[in-house]
Structure formats: structure tokens, C-alpha cells
Amino acid sequence: MMDYIVSYNVFSNIEELGNYFANLFKDRSEELLRNKRNINIALSGGSTPKLYLSKLTGTPFLQNIDWNRIHFFWVDERMVPPTDIMSNYGSIKEFFFDKIPVPEENIHRIKGEIVPQLEVRRYGNEILNNVGKKRNNLPEFDWILLGMGNDGHTASIFQNVELKDEFQNITAVSKNPETSQTRITITEAIINNADYVTFIITGKDKVETVFEILKGDKKKYPAGRINPVNGILEFLLDKEAADMLIENEKL
Ligand code: 6PG
To answer: Does the global pTM surpass 0.85?
Structure first.
């Protein structure tokens, strides 16, 4: 079994990180599409994605990415209607999907307006039907884009929060322990089954947790337990989030 490869890049600011991400998206989607008809990418929610995904809504990326062959999924969703301000899909639709020529049928949102115990199965089946079981008898996403909370959660996998109504180790119902908000998430097993897993983390409130998951007690946080055993794990960090890491490298 191949060990997963870990790399991290530090950028002066989100502008520089976003530009790097846009070019990486173009190059990586081109590379992946050489060997397959379609590729499957899972997006995160929260406030960071708009900072980097929006870079893809301009020239030359609108024209030089084969959007028809890219399918988008989510790593998690808050169980609210898509029009709710808390909706991961709703917020990304406005600044991203409404501005790129991706076919509607390529957007596989988690339906926050459905009863969670039903939606966890429906979305799990949507992943099975579109991503298929390609490795370890589990769906294998081509690329999963993750954020991380300052508590070290990723997707909606929170420390000491039990996942419920798990569907075939693909999806589950979770809860934000701070707000008690119900969520649906893909599982750690699905994330670890992907070809590429990229954490994109910014801001000084994440600096300690970033250091811990890269150099410290990795297993202390859900984000530190992500290890795509057959793939590539990479971190795109702004300088604020990487400060302790940089200091440590100087020692
Ligand atoms: C969510 C996300 C979550 C997010 C982190 C970081 O639904 O909230 O999927 O896992 O990636 O909480 O959020 P920020 O990007 O807002 O810091």
C-alpha cells in the first residue's frame, strides 16, 4: 500500500492562494480528465471556499476548463433549505455556480430541506450512482477540498460527536456541538479513499490547530486523522494560519 504524501504551501495572502488554487484546479482537472470521462470533486462549506472558488469565475478559467465533465458534490451540508443563509450550497451557488458554465445535472447538492434520516440515504446513493465503488469497495472521489474549524473539525466530523444513521460508510448525520445544528457529512473513510485531498485553511484563529495536525498530536483532531492512504494530502495555507509552522521550521 502506498503511503500518502503530505505537502503544504504557504501564501502571503488569500489573493495569492486563490490564484495558485485556480491554476492548480485547471492543471489538475486537465490531468485527471486525460484518463476518464468525468471527474468528481467534493466541496466544503463555510466562509473560505468563496475566497478561492471565485478565482475560477473569470478569464481564462471560464474558457479553459472542461466544465461539462466535472461533477460537484459537497463534503457536508447544514440541514436547512438552500435559500437559508447557512446553506453551504446556497452560498456557493451565488458566487460560483451562477457564474460558471457547469451543467445543472453536474451539481449534486445535499438537500438540506429533506428529513436528515432520509437525505443521508438519498445523497449516499447519489454518490454511489455517480462516483461508484472504485477502491476498497467504497466510492473514490478524484479530489476533495476541505476546510478546518479552529476546533479541528473537518467536513462535519467533530471531535467527540458520534455520527448517526451512517449509510454504507459513505454518509452520516452529524451535529455541530456548539450550535446543535444538524448536518449531513461524508465519512472519514470516503475522504481517506480519495485521490487528492486538499485542506485550504486561512486566518490566525487556526494557527495552533494547523501546527498540531501537521507537526503535533495529529490524531487529537478529526482534521489530523485525514490520511488518503492511496492519494495525495496537501495543505494550502495563508501566512496567518501557518505562522507557528514557519516558526517551527526556523528552529
Ligand atoms: C461547514 C464546513 C466546515 C468548514 C470549516 C471551516 O459546513 O462549516 O464544511 O467543515 O470547512 O468549519 O470553515 P471556514 O472556512 O468558515 O473557516
So the answer is: yes
